[in-house]
Amino acid sequence: MPATLRRGSRGTDVRRLQQLLNTRLQPSPNLQTDGEFGARTESAVRLYQSSVGLGIDGVAGPRTWAALQEGNIANPADGAPIPASYPDAPWMNIAMREIGQREIRGARHNPRIIAYHATTRLRASSDETPWCASFVNWCLLQAGIIGTNSAAAASWVHWGQGVGARAGAIAVIYNAAAARSSLTVSGNHVGFLVQATQNHFILLGGNQSNQVKISSYPKTSWQNRGFRWPSRQPGGV
């Protein structure tokens, strides 16, 4: 099995990954097979993972390699390439850089997650307190935008202004069966919309499998409560 690869990896295995992605994804992303794992390769990995039902983290690990080598073909009708950057949604670029932050098992708590909590009135001191809304508040604040100051996911339902399924929108989704899980106490979850496909909401968010990552939520289980956008951007009028 080839090595686990992520952005910044180089070498023969990266070249093989690029060749497989060019073959398996239809239409082909036409990656340059240069052995450099950059933004375009990462976007192609995320699209492939989304399309074949894998966890979406942009890292070519054992399950991604196995799917690629077994010939599982992605379904391009259920997803578009995930951008490497979001010029009109600077908070998304901030959120992307947080991917990988995760809870620490045991008595210790990740200080980064505590910093997310500090942007809400709750100011929780544990990384085990549901933190999806805290993460959204923190990312927006880094971009100069005041959020809801609330640790409740539902607080975002009427924040800002409503928009369509626009990449970068704050997305609130609801699943009654998920209430009182490690993800959500209320059944509500909030994150940043990467894309809404025919069958899934794909969100970049916090407290998704106890970490910051891109995850896919099936529309058969999760109801859309709204896509929201800041009423004004930094420097706006």
Notable characteristics:
2 domains, 26% helix, endopeptidase fold (from Nostoc punctiforme), 237 residues, 6-stranded antiparallel beta sheet, Muramoyl-pentapeptide Carboxypeptidase, domain 1, 6 helices, alpha+beta
Describe the model:
This protein is of the alpha+beta class and 237 residues long. The chain folds into two domains: 12-78, Orthogonal Bundle (Muramoyl-pentapeptide Carboxypeptidase, domain 1), CATH 1.10.101.10; 90-229, endopeptidase fold (from Nostoc punctiforme). 26% of the residues lie in helices and 15% in strands. The chain is built from six helices and six strands; from the N terminus they run ααααααββββββ. α4 (90-97) packs across α6 (132-142) and α5 crosses α6 (132-142). The model has no long low-confidence stretch (mean pLDDT 88).
In brief:
With 237 residues, the protein is α+β, with helices and mostly antiparallel strands. 26% of the residues lie in helices and 15% in strands. The protein folds into 2 domains: 67 residues, Orthogonal Bundle (Muramoyl-pentapeptide Carboxypeptidase, domain 1), CATH 1.10.101.10; 140 residues, endopeptidase fold (from Nostoc punctiforme) (Alpha-Beta Complex).
Which helices and strands, and how do they pair?
Blueprint (H helix, E strand, L loop, with lengths): L11 H13 L14 H13 L10 H9 L19 H8 L13 H7 L14 H11 L18 E2 L7 E5 L13 E9 L3 E6 L7 E6 L4 E7 L8
Antiparallel strand pairs: 1-6, 2-3, 2-6, 3-4, 4-5
Per CATH, the class of the largest domain reads Alpha Beta
Low confidence ranges: none
Largest beta sheet: what is the strand line-up?
Answer: 1-6-2-3-4-5
Structural class: alpha+beta
DSSP strand tally: 6
Average predicted local confidence, pLDDT: 88
User: Secondary-structure element order, as H and E?
Assistant: HHHHHHEEEEEE
What fold name goes in the CATH topology slot of the largest domain?
A: endopeptidase fold (from Nostoc punctiforme)
Percent of residues in β-strands: 5-15%
The rounded Rg comes to 18 Å
The N- and C-terminal alpha carbons lie at a distance of 54 Å
Provide a count of the helices: 6
CATH architecture of the largest domain: Alpha-Beta Complex
